């Protein structure tokens, strides 16, 4: 049983006790029955009125609750529609009082969400308006009368964030461009003369409209100023080049040049004016020193002629170069010619540098060719011979490649310009072919001279005998290994057998004329080459050191090539002028080398 029901039962008991107590009082007092009835009616009416009043109040409460529920439900539905959320659904059965409380709580929550969304929307609209005014962009399209959904608010927030990033990037670009514009204006001594330039340079940065149009105008202004600055720099560099040229032509001393050294850097307007004044002063000085200036220009002209590989006919074509009437007109002609040549060289600089590279390589190649025909190069002790041979071999490979590369580039140039590219008055490939032909003829001439010289020397030795040679300082002969000795002696034996004019006598020694002397190998006579101007390294080496040939020539008589007595006594291989002298030398050699000769003779006979 509920406590309320218990209380109701207790109320009835209390009422019954009260009525019984009233009846007892009325009995004691002696109130008659009719009055008791009246008094009971009054008690009944009083109790009934009280209960009716209480019931009416509770009924009124119920009606209020029902009405509140209805109102809350309507408002809640409206808020759910505005906030784009699902309608509120009460879970399970509940009392009127609980339902009213739940609905009222939900309505308060929805009202709070609506209020927060409206506040955020207002804040985003204010930020959007501020950013759009700075960026000169249209405002974000959103309905300010309705409550935005969460998705709409998210999109609006993202839009505002994008505007902030755009503002930051444009502001950074604006600040950078503004700084460059100010620097250019300072270099040009330029003051802002338009409203836009004043807005950029003089006004506050935050007040500048960062629209795309303004940014584009800023970039255009910067390009114009940079172009003017570049033009100013080019003019200043031209003036400086003109000043240096005039300094060189007028032979201005270094002290006077240092006085204007501060003008040789920078490109501001005041620097440009000062440079122009210096040029005017030097030009006036040039007119006063006409002859010296023209002679300086002629020196420069000659340098450009050399760099452009001008022939003598091309140089003589410029007649003013040889004139001696030093006038202003002559100076102008020289100035025009030097400008033309300078431009011509700069346009075709790569070709001329390629030809110059070929010329240098060709001169180096000729130098190596000259050294290759010099026997004295074998006496060097620093490994230079090996280095020279490597460089010479490398040049022999690179020269044809360089010629082919230049040939292709020159052919392309000739097709573009419809004229021939000449070097020293002739086409480059003809010039190259001529150089090779001259080199071949020179080698042939040198070869013929050597052959003629050798022929005359041989004829002289055959008629008068060879003159004794003073032994030159040379490297000591390395001792031969036993294998080499055996091989050398075997070769000597075969040669001795093949040559019928050689017969072993006492100590196996026979002296012969140098005309029929064999080389140190003892296998073949030395022949003078007539088919080529080159010598094998072996033949060159023996030709470069004839003393070794004279010493080693004793192998024909059966001696060891590295024996000490032979190296000491065999300078007598030259033919003696008289028989008595020959016999005397033979006797000396026989006494000192008897033992060695007997051993060698034994080796040959075995």
TrEMBL record:
Annotated spans, Disordered: 446-487, 516-556
Coiled coil: 96-130, 215-242
Alphabetized UniProt keyword annotations: Coiled coil
A Pfam family recorded for this sequence: MAP65_ASE1
Biased amino acid composition, Basic and acidic residues: 446-459
GO biological process: one example: mitotic spindle midzone assembly
GO molecular function, one term: microtubule binding
Keyword Coiled coil: yes
Domain of life, source organism: Eukaryota
Gene Ontology CC: cytoplasm; mitotic spindle midzone
Protein known as: Protein regulator of cytokinesis 1
């Amino acid at each position: 049983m509920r406590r309320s029901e218990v209380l109701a039962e207790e109320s009835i008991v209390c009422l019954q006790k009260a009525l019984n107590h009233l009846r007892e009082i009325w009995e004691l007092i002696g109130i008659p029955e009719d009055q008791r009835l009246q008094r009971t009616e009054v008690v009944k009416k009083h109790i009934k009125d009280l209960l009716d009043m209480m019931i009416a109040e509770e009924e009124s409460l119920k009606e209020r609750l029902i009405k509140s529920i209805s109102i809350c439900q309507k408002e809640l539905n409206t808020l759910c529609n505005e906030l784009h959320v699902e309608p509120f659904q009460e879970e399970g059965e509940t009392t009127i009082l609980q339902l009213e409380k739940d609905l009222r709580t939900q309505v308060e929550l929805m009202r709070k969400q609506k209020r927060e969304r409206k506040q955020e929307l207002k804040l985003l609209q204010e930020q959007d308006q501020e950013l759009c005014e700075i960026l000169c962009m249209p405002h974000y399209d959103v309905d300010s009368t309705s409550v935005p959904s969460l998705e709409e608010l998210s999109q609006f927030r993202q839009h505002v964030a994008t505007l902030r990033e755009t503002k930051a990037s444009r502001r950074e670009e604006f600040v950078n461009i503004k700084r460059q514009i100010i620097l250019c204006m300072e270099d040009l001594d330029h003051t802002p003369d338009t409203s836009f330039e004043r807005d950029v340079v003089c006004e506050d940065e935050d007040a500048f409209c960062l629209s795309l149009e303004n940014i584009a105008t800023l970039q255009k202004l910067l390009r114009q100023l940079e172009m003017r600055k570049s033009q100013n720099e080019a003019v200043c560099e031209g003036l400086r080049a003109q000043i240096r040229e005039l300094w060189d032509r007028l032979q201005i001393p270094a002290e006077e040049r240092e006085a204007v050294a501060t003008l040789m850097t920078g490109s501001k307007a005041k620097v440009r004016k000062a440079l122009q004044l210096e040029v005017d002063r030097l030009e006036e000085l040039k007119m006063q020193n006409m002859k010296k200036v023209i002679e300086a220009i002629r020196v420069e002209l000659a340098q450009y002629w050399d760099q452009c590989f001008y022939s003598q006919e091309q140089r003589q074509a410029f007649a003013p170069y040889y004139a001696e009437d030093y006038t202003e007109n002559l100076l102008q002609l020289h100035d025009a010619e030097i400008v033309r040549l300078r431009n011509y060289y700069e346009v075709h600089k790569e070709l001329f540098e390629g030809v110059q590279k070929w010329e240098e390589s060709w001169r180096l190649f000729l130098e190596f060719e000259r050294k290759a025909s010099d026997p004295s190069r074998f006496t060097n002790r620093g490994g230079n011979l090996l280095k020279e041979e490597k460089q010479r071999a490398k040049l022999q490979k690179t020269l044809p490649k360089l010629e082919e590369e230049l040939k292709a580039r020159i052919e392309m140039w000739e097709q573009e310009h419809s004229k021939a590219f000449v070097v020293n008055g002739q086409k480059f490939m003809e010039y190259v072919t001529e150089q090779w032909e001259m080199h071949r003829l020179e080698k042939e001439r040198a070869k013929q001279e050597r052959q003629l010289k050798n022929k005359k020397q041989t004829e002289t030795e055959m008629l008068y005998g060879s003159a004794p040679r003073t032994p030159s300082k040379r490297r000591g002969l390395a001792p031969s290994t036993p294998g080499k000795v055996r091989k050398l002696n075997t070769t000597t034996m075969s040669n001795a057998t093949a040559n019928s004019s050689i017969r072993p006598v006492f100590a196996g020694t026979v002296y012969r004329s140098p005309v029929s002397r064999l080389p140190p190998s003892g296998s073949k006579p030395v022949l003078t080459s007539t088919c080529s101007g080159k010598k094998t390294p072996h033949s060159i080496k023996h030709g470069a050191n004839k003393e070794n040939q004279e010493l080693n020539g004793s192998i024909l008589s059966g001696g060891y090539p590295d024996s000490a007595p032979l190296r000491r006594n065999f300078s007598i291989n030259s033919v003696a002028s008289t028989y008595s002298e020959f016999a005397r030398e033979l006797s000396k050699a026989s006494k000192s080398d008897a033992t060695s000769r007997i051993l060698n003779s034994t080796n040959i006979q075995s």
